[in-house]
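Example record used in the benchmark description.
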Amino acid sequence: MSSRERSNTTVYPYFEGRHNFWFARLGGSGLGNCFYPYFHAYVLSLRNHASLVAPPWFSFKLGPLLRGEPSKRFYWRMFRTLPGDTHGVAKLFTLLRGYPRHALVDIDGISEPVLVSGALNIVVSSAWTFNGLHQYRNAIRERMLAIVRETVPAGHRWGQGGFIGMHVRLSDFLKIPDPQAIARRPTGTRIPLQWYMAVARALRERYPDMPIMVFSDGQVEELQPLLDLGTQLYRSGSDVIDLLAMAGASMLVGSNSTYSRWAGFLGNMPSIWLAGARIDREPPNERIVDADVPVQYVPIDATEVTLSP
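Model output (structure tokens):
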């Protein structure tokens, strides 16, 4: 790739939405889903010395407002653009000029993504995969901390915070009467609070000196049975700061969402997940953490929790 081709090669992470206006979205993916095209695009820009075009983080959603969720999930002014990123008027001209002949780069978790030199490369994720990102984890961590506008949690250490993080995804996820059916549904299903409670009891017995911090978009009233077990609710008021805090846990109990998967990837800590549950674009045998980091899949009745931090 010549220097002229390199300077004209751009990478644009495409965020899904009902309408994507390049600078804002109507509806669309939340943080966890957006991080897949964004960080794959970032890694591709590093590997190919290409320019990264800033994505439209802002997304207007009615659902969180109507449901009265603690977070409205707009992501307005949550992230900053960094020197070298193409944004503002330059972004508009780049997309207008390159979009008619753009190259589509699909992250499918199988094939190696390849950029087209001198073109606008639009990165989409048909698979929610960390394949190709593990060796760039430190660069992704640094990028994450650099783009976040808010103050990072005090004493933040990736995967070494000395506490157990438990992500309880509720809000727009569907509650189904048969817990055994969760493993048969691809995504969007709540894990019963009783599973988290059973896991919390087991972890409290094994590690009585490790606090359990609950991260959740649910109402306090919904979470109260879990909180009554001595767990603590962490809620900073910012989705991304909550994610960074959760990524600092020494052990993670994940939900069936991409949000907790990103906390696991960034923290690279031992983790517990519901056995059999997966999300619809997650490839089979997807590895979130490094191969030498222990992972346990606990059944719905949570009969055995043996993971060590």
